[in-house]
Amino acid sequence: MTDNTLSRASARDRVETHRSLRVIFVDDEKPLQEFMRSELPRLGHEVTVCPDGRTALKVLEKSTFDVAILDLRMPGMTGIEVLEHLKKVSPDTEAIVMTGHATMETAIEAVRLGALDYITKPCKLAQIEAVLCKVAEKRELKHKNIALQTRVQAAEGPTILVGKSPAMAAVHRLIDTVAPTESTVLILGETGTGKELAARTLMQKSKRGDMPFVPVNCGALAEHLVESELFGHRKGAFTGADRDHKGLFEVANGGTLFLDEVGELNKNIQVKLLRFLESGEIRRVGDTEPFRTDVRVLCATNRDLRAMIREEEFREDLYFRINTFEVRLPSLRERRQDIPELARHLLSRAARRPAEQVADLLTPEVIDVLLEHEWDGNVRELANVMEHAYILAGGGKILPEHVPHSVRSHSGGGTSRLSLAAGTVPASPAPTSTDATGRTLRELEMEHILRVLDKHNGSKTAAAAELGISLKTMYNKLNQLQEERKAAG
């Protein structure tokens, strides 16, 4: 078996760049055995050659391989029988079957049993190299995915809603009740309260816990591409649609689709979302026929949808469809007794260390500062503060001076550890409080934000960094200001 188009010299040239695999080759033809012993190492792979199926089974009991190349017709034990055993003892090993007696039936049977590919004899070295490259790419993608999940888990910490306050206890009870159902859920709360985390908790406690979870920030989707992103499109459906595109409803098939900032969807998309919730069907842009997809929809918003309905900006029928159950997340101001536990949890996440290893880093003085702050940015703001403090403290004890100045300067007259120990939570200062000039705290805050924004020549990113808030919080505050100015005429 030779391939004139592939020289041995070119194969040697690829050894350094080709991704190495551990290969077990099972075939009763001696010329093929010798060929594989010689050529696969030249391609950068390790190879173990077995003359028959029974020998292969003994080898598989002692060693694991990335890929098995199996002849289907061998004396004593067929390649199909070896494949069946392989998938029992080493399901992660990819199987490639080869035979000189190709039939559709054997191909279908091999694929049904888990073979990745099927090639016929006589085959060229280039064909073998191509299929091994396919295995290597699949293996690399799998490893990258595992690595990414590990990094995300290390960065984000455990996916749990932290808090034992009465307000959070009510949230936990509702989630535990609703999660096992197929009902739609509307998650409400201020920016930074953890709406996506609540959605993930709902998903993990549902029957779809091991299926895809697809979060979508509706406010971040380009207006002219929203329909395509959600429902997909066919090639040629519009200018630039040079291939079929699978929408997020298809990506989430069997799992959960989380529509964050659902209030940002326009009326046209609201109609299509309503149609899906009523029929379970979607239609790609450019398609004439709808098709069914099995997705549970969870929605979230920090906007007042009832007010939007009155303003005819949101469909009332859709509101009732997405709001079978309503989970309202309390602001951090409404659950101050959770702040110490949350701070330790978020510090653990920032430090990439278990909570018990960082619990002693938070000094009582810092806890007092945290308890007295107003936390307009809620849990997200607290997470930023913990990361900031951990870095400045160099991994040691966190003192008040390690906390951002904006938190220390805005603290005072708030909740103390003594009041929490007594089981009481004083009310937050009214947002309409005024200073000596008669301006409200809200007006003072916006004046400060605009001054910082002007200082950075309109750069929202730089202004947000100086203010110690996220870019999204910056946009939300500016949008609120714009809405207030419109309302004032």
Features:
globular; Rossmann fold; Helicase, Ruva Protein, domain 3; disordered N terminus; 489 residues; five-stranded parallel beta sheet; alpha/beta; single chain; 4 domains; 22 helices
Care to describe what's here?
Helix 5 (104-112) links the parallel strand 4 (94-99) and strand 5. Strands 2-1-3-4-5 form a 5-stranded parallel beta sheet, with helices on both faces. The N and C termini lie far apart (83 Å). It has 489 residues and is of the alpha/beta class. Helix 14 crosses helix 17 (378-392) and helix 20 (441-455) crosses helix 21 (460-467). The relative contact order is 0.07. The chain is built from 22 helices and 12 strands. It folds into 4 domains: 8-145, Response regulator (Rossmann fold), CATH 3.40.50; 166-328, Rossmann fold, CATH 3.40.50; 334-421, Helicase, Ruva Protein, domain 3, CATH 1.10.8; 441-487, Orthogonal Bundle (Arc Repressor Mutant, subunit A). The model is unreliable at 1-18, 153-158 and 412-436 (pLDDT under 50).
Would you kindly provide a brief summary of this structure?
The protein is α/β, with parallel strands linked by helices and 489 residues long. It has helices at residues 8-13, 30-42, 53-62, 79-89, 104-112, 125-156, 166-178, 195-204, 226-231, 248-251, 267-279, 305-310, 316-322, 339-351, 355-358, 364-372, 378-392, 405-410, 417-421, 441-455, 460-467, 471-487; strands spanning 22-26, 46-50, 67-71, 94-99, 115-120, 185-188, 213-217, 256-260, 281-282, 291-292, 296-301, 325-328. The protein has four domains: 8-145, 3-Layer(aba) Sandwich (Rossmann fold); 166-328, P-loop containing nucleotide triphosphate hydrolases (Rossmann fold, 3-Layer(aba) Sandwich); 334-421, Helicase, Ruva Protein, domain 3, CATH 1.10.8.60; 441-487, Homeodomain-like (Arc Repressor Mutant, subunit A), CATH 1.10.10.60.
